[in-house]
Amino acid sequence: MTSDPFAAVDQAVAAAAADLRRGLEATRDSWNDSARRAFDVQYAAALLGAADSAAADIAAVRARLSAALQLLFDT
Amino acid sequence: MALVETRDESIITIDAAISAWMETLRGVWAQASARMSATVSEIDAEVRARANGVAALEAAAARARDDDRAALLAQLERARRAYDKAQRAAREGAAAREHLQAAVRRAAPALQSDAPAARADLRRRLGELGSYRLAAGSRASVSTSSASSSAPSGVPAALTSRGLTEIDLTQVDFGDNPIDGFGKGGASSADYRWATETWATVVRPGVAGGMTRNDFAARDGARGAPPLRRTADVYDLFLGDSDRIVVSRLPSGRLDVINGRHRIEVARQLGIKHLPARMME
């Protein structure tokens, strides 16, 4: 039994959130201001919030599970 | 990440980023759920094994002679502590599983409605961009077919007042003087692409709506636009006296390019059908 079974998913979800942020924020120089604001308010904010929340949740789950396993094998 | 210079490329890149995130998150949830189940099962198995160990030691201690009992009781005490830890680990594991299940529920709206809605919005924007270009093409077709005297329908007054019209790029011919690359004057092909797309999607609509060069300069200032990404420069590039596209009519009826081949080339690549130009007599 590995002591850190969520390491890979933690890294994957954090990287996905960072990629989404880069994709949403760094590619809209060609948009006009009103289009950018509208997309931000309607979609981008919610998606980035969800991505960050998912990353934080997985990190927390990883920590809890690692603590449980450490408790189990800390004799 | 691919080079993003035009609005089309931007929309496609954002859509790809959202799609990739959705796919990754679904994979993460599936992988996390599988690992959680496996880990909790292993913890539960360890709890059962330690419970069995405690029971066996209790039975052995009950049967043991007095001189063996003390050692067995010490082992039993250690086994009970280990069992207690395993039970606490099982409770922590169960709490972690509940946390994960709650996280999946929290993310569901983003995956099931927010992200698809955002992608639908991007498709709509892409469609509008295509429709705009088609409409601009239709307007400019009127201008080129009605020759040169009066202000043609659909061409902004800011163009006609400068002696410009909008030429049909399918009529342009510079096969006898092909482009041998970009980079002259410090502008790359990406810079030309940005400028030409910005003309079609930002500056021309703004000019048609009454915006002046000063308006674009103020817009650039407010956005902190860097060199080669300023709409006022795009205004100058297409409407200014020194850089405007200049063409002449050939006996064949096609248009010969005197200035502006690079802009025409990237406009064709972008699917832009018309650009403003001075028609030499």
Question: What can you see in these coordinates?
Answer:
The complex is a heterodimer of chains A (75) and B (281). Helices cover 80% and strands 0% of the residues of chain A. With 75 residues, chain A is an all-alpha fold. In chain A, helix 1 packs antiparallel against helix 2. Chain A starts with 6 loop residues before the first helix and ends with a helix. Helix content of chain B is 68%, strand content 8%. In chain B, a hairpin with a 5-residue loop joins strand 3 and strand 4. In chain B, 35% of the residues are buried. Chain B has a five-stranded mixed sheet with strand order 1-5-3-4-2. In chain B, helix 5 packs antiparallel against helix 6. With 281 residues, chain B is an alpha/beta fold. At the A-B interface, helix 1 and helix 2 of A face helix 1, helix 2 and helix 4 of B.
Strand content of chain B: 5-15%
Shape of chain A: elongated
User: What structural class do you assign from the helix and strand content of chain B?
Assistant: alpha/beta
What are the low-pLDDT stretches of chain A, counting only 5+ consecutive residues below 50? none
What's the multimeric state? Answer: heterodimer
The helix tally of chain A amounts to 2
Order of helices and strands of chain A: HH
pLDDT averaged over residues of chain B:
84
| Total beta strand runs of chain A | 0
